[in-house]
Structures are given as structure tokens and as C-alpha cells.
Amino acid sequence: MKRTIFLAALFCAACMLFAQGVLDEDDSLLDKRSEESASPHSFSILTDFAYYPYSDMVSGSGERFAPMTGPYDGLQFAVTAAYDYTLPMPGSTAITKDNNIKLGAEFQISPATLKPRIFMSYSPAAFLVFDGGITLGTGWEFLGSQGMASYNPASGKYEDLTPFKNSFYEFDLGATFQFDAAALWPGDWHHIVFMSTYRFRYSGMTNQADGHPWCWAADYHKVNGPNYYVNMILGYQMPLKLSLFGLQAEFDGFYSDSQFAPQFRSIDGDFCRINLTPLVVFSLSKKDTLFVLFYFERRRGFDTERGVVNGRDQSDFEMRCSGGEWCFKRLAFRYIHEF
After folding, report:
1. Which single residue of 16, 64, 244, 304 has CA 20 to 30 Å from 129?
2. Are the beta carbons of 309 and 156 closer than 8 angstroms?
3. Count of Cβ atoms closer than 10 Å to residue 161 Cβ
4. pTM of the full structure
5. Residues facing 210 on adjacent strands
6. First CA to last CA across the chain, in angstroms?
7. What percent of the chain has pLDDT over 70?
8. Which of 301, 235, 295 lies closest to 267 in space, CA to CA?
């Protein structure tokens, strides 16, 4: 699976080398910024909301689908303040005229987490962006949502960590290749856009031994160490209020199951989680953008139904991972206001 992902990303990179257009100056459609102002300063507020339905596990082998079995499994809400400063670089050709270095900072708060981030990006050509960042964060439990927790093998549960005494941290490096068909086929209705990002991340939780599972922002089965993230988007942009529709594919996981301690390896540590996400974008005004996303996720599957151990339900680490289970993960909204 990881070889397939690497080859796909490499193919995308080769395609981008022939492009002279740009999808967006940032590394994701979900972080779109206005280009109307000549000011090097950019400030925006991003509001995220997501609704999660419930789907029971379906035991078996190979790939299968887990239908929704309940109307509600949780809500997610976060607000992010984002600032960046753009330094233009000299350039004289169609490919290099928009070269720039961007310095930025984000501060995100949700009901269960607090997460600041600083980053820097460099765009040597219209179709290519390199970037890196440092993230720190802390979390707590809020209405059943765990912001930061550590797995306890005795109880088979994730138990909350003390906020500020424990911290999440992440260092990341990424490369993005982006292309707009209108660069080769000019026209307001010719914007077939494509983007591919490969990101190396080193994530960790303080006061946690290497190989021991922890949770960050209700995202479970994490351990200290390197991991990867791949994002690909194919979309069609239009000069309308409904400005884009498309499909996003995301892949993330660990490079090896040896990153997990031996007693936790039944979970298939290098399992590749996949999200396939139809999305639509509404340009409400020059400064207001709304994204609507429908996430279908490939999560870990297990070969048997969940049993009982010492009078309690088995945890995932006491079962054996077998194949992938597809389900409708969430309906998400992102609203961006730029100042």
C-alpha cells in the first residue's frame, strides 16, 4: 500500500513539472486565502464543525463496508486564527514570477484541545511549494471527547492525561505539486485543478514511552515517531457562487508496525487509513468561503466480534486487525473569513 501511495505521489510530481499554472499559493484547498489584496499580511479566522454518525464494527477479512447503525456518534468544533506574511522573490518567467517565502502562525482552540503552530513555506515555482512547521498542543476531556489520553493495558481503555503537564508535539515537512488546466487552456470555465501533497511528520506525546499508544484530539492508536500524510485533490473551479466541486483522497499511517511495542502489534501498526471525500466550495464573498465535505473512511477492521476480557469489553489491542472497513465518517463544514 505504501509503495502504491509513493508511486502515485511521484507520478503527480512528474505531471506538475510540465505545469505553468497554480491552483492556490497554499498547500491545501482547505486553507484557501484571498489574493485580492497586495498587502503581504494576511489574517483569517477558520471555523470547523463536523457531525459523526455511528457505525458498528463488521468483523471479517478483506475489505468490507460498515453501514450506519445509529444517528449520532459525536460532534467536533474548532476555531483557528491564522496569520501569514508573504515575502515575494524575484522572478521573470511565467513559472517563477510568483515565487515567495511565507511565514505564518496559527492558533486553534476546540472544546477539548489547544494547539498553536508556526510554519514556513517556499514556492520556487507556481506549481511547487515546500513547507515545514512545528505544532504544540495540550488537551483535556470534554463531554466524553478525549483531547489527550494514554492507553492503559490493565483497564483496556484510554485514560485522560493531565493538561499542560503533558503535551502533544509535531514536526512536519511537506512538498506540494499543483496544477490548473486553464494555464494551458485559457478560459474562465477551463479550471480543472489538481493538487498532490506528501508530508513527513514526527509526532509525539511527552511523558509517553516509545511504542506506547496514546490519543490526541480523539484520534486514537498513535505512538511517538515518524508517520506520513498524503493528500490529493481533483476539482473543477467555476466563476460562480458554487465555485468548486471535487474529490479529495487522504492517506496517513506509520511507516512500520515495529514503531509499536511488541504487545500492541496485533493492531497492524502500519495500517493505512484512507479518507475519500467529495467536497463543494461556496465563494460567498471576496472574504468569505464555505466548504462542505463528506468523509468516507477506511478504518481498521477486525477478524472477530468484540469479546469480553476480565469482565470488560476487549480493547482493539486485544483483538487482531484484519483488512479495512469502509464507513461514512462525518459531514464537515469549514467557514473562512479573511480580514
Report:
1. 244
2. yes
3. 26
4. 0.88
5. none
6. 42
7. 87
8. 301
